[in-house]
Amino acid sequence: MNKINSICVFCGSNYGSNPIFQKKAEDLGKYLANNKITLVFGGNSDGIMGTISKTVMKNNGKVIGITAQNIEQITTTSTNITQIIKTPDISERKKKMLEYSDAFIAFPGGWGTLEELSTIISWKRAELHNKPLALLNVNHFYDKLWAFFQITLQESFISKKDLDSVICSSDIQEIINFFKNF
Questions:
Q1: Domains of the chain by start residue, with CATH
Q2: How would you write the pLDDT of the chain (182 residues) with one tens digit per residue?
Q3: How large is the greatest C-alpha to C-alpha distance in the chain, in angstroms?
Q4: Which of 6, 28, 130, 139 has the maximum number of C-beta atoms within 10 A of its C-beta?
């Protein structure tokens, strides 16, 4: 079993249309803080990113925000967190997220979340890391993406080994157990 000390959560700077997203973000933040797991995230104080980081901090947890200076004009950087790491650009931000994290959770989000998710999967395939990834499937958000992954496996565009490091679940504890047993 592996100890999980830090988890990078990819998520949006918007809240989404369903209040269940914000509720699940609070649940995840409480879980991380209560289990002494450091949150690593994109450093934005808006939307789901802000909800998770504020919840972790409110529950005496540790939060590392990793920001990209080339997008600071369109983001609101979190200030009330444990540590801020500034990188010159988004590519360097993702490298730092990888460096500081033991595992990754893709929370429902938009283009940025999809791009971060794709990068981590690609880097895993290129053997740049061997860390697990979860799609936190809130309100069936990732059902179609998970089905796409299954089709790519069925059609031999990816291998079973590629998919073995990924779980799709709405249950936070199931995800953490997967990470620990990875």
A1: 6-181 (3.40.50.450)
A2: 579 999 999 998 899 999 999 999 999 999 999 999 999 998 887 899 999 999 999 999 999 999 887 566 555 565 678 899 989 888 898 999 999 999 999 999 999 999 999 999 999 999 999 999 999 999 999 999 999 999 999 999 999 998 999 999 999 999 999 999 99
A3: 47
A4: 28
| Length of the chain, in residues | 182
Contact 62, 38 (CB under 8 A): yes
Separation CA 127–CA 104 (nearest Å): 16
**pTM (whole model) above 0.90:** yes
C-alpha dihedral, 182 to 127 to 134 to 37, nearest 10°: 70
